[in-house]
Design brief:
Mean pLDDT: 97
Number of strands: 20
Low-confidence stretches: none
Structural class: mainly beta
Order of helices and strands: EEEEEEEEEEEEEEEEEEEEH
Largest sheet: 12 strands, parallel
Helix content: 10-25%
Amino acid sequence: MVLIKKIRGKCPKFGKNNFLAENSSIIGDVIIGNNSSVWYNSVIRGDVSKISIGNNVNIQDGAILHATYNKSIITIGDNVSIGHNCLIHGCYIKSYVLVGMGAIVMDGAVIESQTIVAAGSVVLPNSKLESGNIYAGTPAVLVKKLTKDQKKELISDTAQNYILYSTWFQD
């Protein structure tokens, strides 16, 4: 059963048609939009700061979302994919972004729309990743421009696919 926990007077709020895996944890000041999914072993911990997640967002298996007390919040736009085992901490991820498996995005970072953070990358605190690019490495640096096809296939299609996948898990 999903752990949905009120803390410090704040209870998570959910839009419509969301999939929340049975062993995910969603705690405190968290808002999740419509058609979003939180997959197995993920933790969205809004105990110290607000976490806002848009529509058509997938938080894949093992991801952790948290922030720093009195310093940062998390805002995630629409049509975003947060890959397996990512650590998202106190940052702003705009719409149409793919954060690859195992990536770390730290406090104060801003990821512009139409951007990919490659698997295993580390986005340092207060970094700004510009739209239309792929960033990779530790620390994450610009490696190349995205093509129109990559924007569709890697970013938009992934977000849409996870809406489909979540229907497979409904009773």
